[in-house]
Design goal:
With about 110 residues, the protein is mainly beta. The strands form 2 sheets. It has a 5-stranded antiparallel β-sheet with strand order 4-3-2-1-5, with no helix packed on it. Strands 6-7 form a two-stranded antiparallel ribbon. The longest helix has 5 residues.
């Protein structure tokens, strides 16, 4: 069994390799964990492999903000230093340190 280590971290700002959007990572799946329908809706010639980390992003482009689910192979670090303007950023993160968003502490039950 091969153990993969995620290349990106929660709180890191990334951009899509092909499409014009960027975002902050708020969760990661070690491998594909979405629906088969979602995966099959991606054109086959650009469909990512399932055996890699997939990242949940608070994403933004020039027109809007949204939540994106993106394969590791399609992400690059965003070194622009620009903050992410998604309205949910302040719900999940409490600031930026060393270029990365810092997660809000989760209450323990």
């Amino acid at each position: 069994m091969t153990v993969r280590v995620a290349r990106f971290e929660i709180g890191q700002v990334v951009r899509h390799r092909v499409f014009p959007f960027r975002g902050v990572i708020f969760d990661v799946d070690p491998e594909f964990a979405n629906t088969e329908e979602w995966w099959l809706a991606i054109p086959e010639h650009v469909r990512p492999r399932k055996d890699q980390p997939f990242y949940h992003l608070l994403a933004e482009n020039a027109e809007t903000t949204y939540v994106a689910y993106v394969s590791e192979q399609n992400l690059l670090p965003d070194d622009s230093g620009q903050p992410v303007s998604h309205p949910q950023v302040s719900e999940l993160f409490c600031g930026i340190e060393n270029g990365r968003y810092v997660r809000r502490p989760h209450p323990v039950n």
